[in-house]
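Supplementary notes (optional reading)

For those who missed the lab, this is the record we used. Protein: Universal stress protein. Length: 139 residues.
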Amino acid sequence: MISRVLVPVDESEMATYALEYALEAYPEADITALHVVGVPSSMWGEASGIALSDDLEEAAKEHARTVLEGARETAGAYDAELATDIELGHPVRAILERADGFDTIVIGAHSGTLSERLFVGNVAEKIVRRSPVPVTVVR
């Protein structure tokens, strides 16, 4: 039985679809929406701005606040409670480090801009390949 579900979220439509899928497929499970504020690179304008902030942790939380508020609104439409969490770091590593505490991961097929997907790689693909728990990819 699936009792704990991890759903990585960002501002993408695919992440919203993944969260909706998890809420529908696992209505009795404890679902956690995780937003990872990526490590800075020249390709990630937003993360680079966060990295230059005086208080890195506070800037990351501020960036994640709107993403997680959207996730809570989605859960509210399903009359469901949703735990939320923020991590700072490389998205794949951060998600995989949390995976052992869950029964499954539900992730959107892709997110980010085309250039991020080309240069950084597809997060969902890497999660599927490396996850210690089952993964559902939602399109």
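If you only remember one thing from this example: The mean pLDDT is 85.
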